[in-house]
Please model this.
Amino acid sequence: MNFHILTLFPDMVMNGLNTSITGRAIEAGILSVEAVNIRDYANNKHLKVDDYPYGGGAGMLMQAEPVYGAYEAVAKHIQKKRETEGQVQSQKIRVVYLTPQGATFTQRMAEEYAQEEDLILLCGHYEGIDERVLEEIVTDYVSIGDYVLTGGELPAMVMIDAISRLVPGVLSNEVSAEFESFQDDLLEYPQYSRPEEWHGKKVPEVLLSGHHANIDRWRREQSLIRTRERRPDLLK
Ligand code: ADE
Model:
């Protein structure tokens, strides 16, 4: 899967994603992450990409043209690649704009995005982006939660992390994405490793029994108990 991030801070996203599991997947060629610097598409010699909002108000806005230029460069590249691979040209390229005004990101959305071959993520800064370019290029408005961050870079990284681990081959252990929190809208059961006793606390007997049906039943019960305690909203 290929992620294309349109941003004013390419180093921020690349440094974060080049480490750990995503970094390994990039190295293995399972994922690619490209950060496109919106400033490279500024159409003035000072490389300015922001300006005052019409009508007044606090802060600056990112201007339409540099954002559009960065998008166009990436979109053309994707179209050309699809052409050489003989794919259907009509297939829409999804462009996600990270914004507190978007739909709240969920595991289900991560599963859906993981089916895409290419995903463009647009990161805003300052007080936002000129509405006209959003109307032209954005297909999905996504928020990572009801709080306001200084930019879309961290939300883009959050999305890429959650999506990547669902792409086949990214997690070394294929089953590890299989049963986990939010599967069937339940939280994951508690887990234990060695030693059998730590700080006077023993590992639940059933997990040492080797009786797989009993273990499965216990885990299912624990998932329900945990979800009821910590996230009762998921049971509704
Ligand atoms: N940009 C600023 N805050 C954000 C949030 N909560 N989610 C997505 N993008 C954002």
